[in-house]
Amino acid sequence: MSGTGSPGSWKQHTIAGAIELHGVGLHGGAPASLAIWPAPEDHGVRFVRRDVASRLDERRIDAHWDRVKTTFLATTLGNVSGCRIATVEHLMAALYALGVDNALVLVDGPEIPILDGSSLPFVDAIRAAGIIAQDAEARVIRVLEPVTVRAGDAWLSIEPSETFSIRLEIDFGLRAVCQRGCGLEITPESFTTSIAAARTFGFVSDIRVLRRNGLCLGGSFDNAVVLDDNGRVVNRGGLRFSDELVRHKILDCVGDLALAGARILGHVTGRKSGHGLNASLLRALMSREDAWEWTTPPDPWSPAWRPPEYPDIRPE
User: Fold this and answer.
1) In which band, very low, low, confident or very high, does the pLDDT at 2 lie, cut at 50, 70 and 90?
2) pLDDT for position 28
3) Catalytic hit among 13, 27, 90, 275
C-alpha cells in the first residue's frame, strides 16, 4: 500500500466499561445474549462464542471482511474451525459510527440478539458505558479510485472523498415507501439521530416462506417493519421515519463496511444493494492496491464535504 500521511489527531477508541444485552436471535429464535468488553489498542473488534466447548482460538472470530461466510438475509462471520456468528451488522454499525475501534464481544449463541431490529439499543448501551480515547493512531483507509460492483440491475460503488458518506436507493416496485433514496455523511451524531433507529424489514409473503424453512423464527412486530404484498406497513405503530426502509439499508451498509477493520474515507452510492453487494464491494476495494491507501487524517469526523445533489437528512 501507499505510505501513510502525517500523524493526526484521530486516535483509537474503546468502551469505558462492560456492556450486557439480552434478546433473541432473528433467525433461530433462540435466546441470545452478548457482553462487550473494552479491548487494548490494535485489538480491533473480535467475537468469541462462549457457548462453544473448544479452545479459545477455535471459537474466536475477527470482525474482518475476509471472515465473511454468508450474506443471505444477514452477515455471518466464521473462522477456519467452522465456528460462526450471524447477524453482526447492526452491532458493527453502532461500533463503527461511534468510533469504537477496539472491543471484545462475547456471545452466548450463534447469533447477535436482534433487539428492536435496529442499531439504537447498541448505540444507547455504548454511549451509556462511555467511549475513551487510546494512545495509538486510528487505522484509516482513504479511497483513491472508484470501485463498483454489480449484480443484475443492482449496484454499489465507492469513490474518493474526504469524509465517509453513503447514498442509497431502494426500489421494490411497489408504493412510495418501497421506492426511496437518501444519503448523509456518517458521523457519530448523524448516525445516532438519523440512522440508528431504522429497523430491519420484510414482506409477509417472504416471512412465511422463511419460517417454513426454519428461518426468521425470532422475527416479530417488536423487532421488524412488516409489509404486505402491496408495500403497506402492517405494524400498528407505523414507521419511525417516512423513509425508514432505505435508512436501514444505509445502517446495514455501515455495519458491513465496518468489516474493513478501519475507518473509511470514501463516498458510497448504490441502488437495490444489500449484504451481498456490501461484502463484494469491500472485497473488490481491498483487492485493488491502486484504489486505496492507509492514511491518518488530521481532523476526526471532519464535516468539510457533503455531496451537493441531496440534502442532509434530519430526524423526523
Assistant:
1) very low
2) 86
3) 275
